[in-house]
Amino acid sequence: MSKDFDNTLEQLRRQRQESRCPMGDEELERKARQAWQADAPRAQGAVVFPVARRRSLYSWPAVAAGMALVLVPLGLRASSGNGLDTVTVDGQQVYFACNNACSSTGTIAMLDEYINLT
Amino acid sequence: MDNPRETAYLELVKRQRDLIWRVCSDFSLSAAWEVEDAFQEVLLTLWKDFGSYKGLSSERTWVYRVATNTMLMIKRRAINQPQPQVELREEATSDNDHVQQLREIIDSLEETDRCVVCANLDGFSHKEIAQMTGLSSLAVATRLNRIKHKIRQRYEQGF
Predict the structure, then answer these.
(1) What CATH number should be reported for the domain whose range is B93-159?
(2) I want to staple A97 with a disulfide (CB 3.0 to 4.6 A). Which of A24, A81, B86, B92 is the partner?
(3) Tens digit of pLDDT for each residue in A43-81?
(4) CB neighbours of B3 closer than 8 A, spacing ≥ 6?
(5) For B120, which residue in chain A has the nearest alpha carbon?
(6) Candidates A11, A39, A53; nearest CB to B48
């Protein structure tokens, strides 16, 4: 067992430089596509925020890792997602869209969090 | 995929995936899914900033800077959220434990120091780190020496 600093630092450097992203091309392409799809409504004034990060806070099995959700002000069309819901935030109706199928319970939970964050 | 911006972006992500993953792993140590979430968020920021990349620094340096800034933003945002409980470790007993010990010391550094030392470990030159941080190359070199001295002291004292 060595506690030599320089040796350990070199090991850490090597480990870092050898570490590889576990995603294959297909998964990476899917994630990249989600990024530009999620960004399309943002360009029109929608609020975009990733959801999967908060799945530990909400039991929402329909949420897959890496998905992005968008809040689109009423009047704009959500260009991404096959899950689309309409809800009211502070008296203003907004579309709530996500790029994966989701439950309305999850939608409400996410909106609660969105309201708390803003 | 006909859109040239999308094609170029995807190629960039494919080229730099390991680097992005490494930056995300640096900041999200508690669970594998956190790294994936962070990765997705970095991809989103890269896409948003993609048009602003002017080639003033290398692609790798630019990606590293964007990824690091995104992770710092996520970290600040997460401060108000409940954090997972960290299990106390026993004394290091193997080389891997020593590496982990070193990792934890680096993780406990002040943000800029941490980013500078991680970039150095990832093979970036002083000039490239200067481009990422806005410091001068000389300041990066001085800072790195100081940080390494601090890390060494903590490591040898068993922090």
Answers:
(1) 1.10.10
(2) A81
(3) 555 555 444 333 333 333 333 334 445 554 444 333 333
(4) none
(5) A13
(6) A39
